[in-house]
Amino acid sequence: MHIPSLQNKVSPEEWQLRVDLAACYRLVAAYGWSDLVFTHISARIPGPDHHFLINPYGLMFDEITASSLVKVDQQCNKLIDSPFPVNPAGFVIHSAVHEVREDAGCVLHTHTRAGVAVSAQQCGVLPISQQSTFVLASLAYHTYEGVAIRDDEKTRLQADLGHANFLMLRNHGLLTVGKTIADAFLSMYTFESTCQIQIGAQAGGAVTHVDPRIVHGVAESMRVQTGGLGGAFVWPSLIRKADRLDPSYKT
């Protein structure tokens, strides 16, 4: 499918954001976190208007390019013409977060098997791995209300998320908030690993919990640090991986 390039029709800053977001979609597909054309990743365009980029509904994640990403406002109006629609559920969830979180440079949402499995467990995330301690340091939960297509759910989702960077959507999946695309991706890598480890450990029998004092210590450390989980250090290597897989995401 040929999609005309937008490189010379947007600012250099927006184009770089588009390239990074398209790379993120390709990487999510490569790591097996995609769900056909469902779930979504959004990136906020700097400025006071809360405009953001989101996936064109109907394209697989490994098809998404910088130019195919859809630019929308808070009412889901397309700001650049696109032949593709926007997933209504995706818009509700992502617009809700971008509306109230000035630090939400990127919002990443998945429906992985492990993520949905843990979201369905009454216990939620258990402190049984090093990965889980990072998640528990900034974790919130949102009760399932059906497919997220109603605007009235936004206020409850916003209240449940608060200042957390990890959100478990009960019976639904995982969501991460990052200052950058790199931070949101690395947070999801940690969140997904946490859930996979938990399901695997539970299948093997009784589990050992991390000392609560250690979990609390991680939370305190993350409250004072400003660099997220280190996405900036990992992102260049992930970009090289995306380039090796298929550099067409840059078009």
Task: Kindly describe this structure.
It is built from 8 helices and 7 strands. The chain has one domain: Class II aldolase/adducin N-terminal domain (L-fuculose-1-phosphate Aldolase, 3-Layer(aba) Sandwich), CATH 3.40.225. 42% of the residues lie in helices and 12% in strands. A 7-stranded mixed β-sheet has the order 3-2-1-4-7-6-5, with helices on both faces. It is α+β, with helices and mostly antiparallel strands and 251 residues long. The relative contact order is 0.16.
- The share of residues in helices is 40-55%
CATH top level label: Alpha Beta
Rg over alpha carbons: 18 Å
Structural class: alpha+beta
CATH architecture: 3-Layer(aba) Sandwich
Question: CATH superfamily, called what?
Answer: Class II aldolase/adducin N-terminal domain
The general outline is globular
User: How many helical stretches?
Assistant: 8
Strand order of the largest sheet: 3-2-1-4-7-6-5
CATH topology call: L-fuculose-1-phosphate Aldolase
Short synopsis of the structure:
With 251 residues, the protein is α+β, with helices and mostly antiparallel strands.
Task: Name a few traits of the molecule.
alpha+beta, seven-stranded mixed sheet, L-fuculose-1-phosphate Aldolase
Secondary structure layout:
Elements: H1 12-30, E1 40-44, E2 52-54, E3 70-72, H2 88-100, E4 106-110, H3 113-119, H4 130-136, E5 139-142, H5 153-161, E6 166-169, E7 173-178, H6 181-203, H7 212-224, H8 231-245
Parallel strand pairs: 5-6
Antiparallel strand pairs: 1-2, 1-4, 2-3, 4-7, 6-7
Helix pairs in contact: 1-8, 2-5, 3-6, 4-6, 6-8
